[in-house]
Design goal:
The protein is mainly beta. It is built from no helices and 9 strands. β1 and β2 form a beta hairpin.
Length: 128
Amino acid sequence: MGNEFENNDMPGMMRADMREKNGQLLIEIELPGYSRENINAKLENGRLTIIASRKEELESSDRETHYLMRERMVGEISRTFLVGDGVHEKDVSAQLKDGILSIIIVRSEKAVEGQSIKLIDIQNVIAL
């Protein structure tokens, strides 16, 4: 698979596991503290891109607060996985549970020409 899935412990990087079993690809991505509404997944040209965003949590009454240390990222992070040209949006399901985004892809042997961007609906619960 090469180095395209390497993490290198970069701050804000999504940690992920990818495995294949019985013709299905399972990607599990750690996204603790992110809600379903703040996670987007899109499929384009054989690549699955996950985008997660988190906003500043300080309320207007907390403007006098100054961070002494800040390790939790605010903003947007993304990661792209090569999943193959033969994958359609109907072949992909995604669920978020306990801070883990689980994506199941049923792999097809046939490549499809002219694929466009497809958004993946992320569910709240997964049953594997």
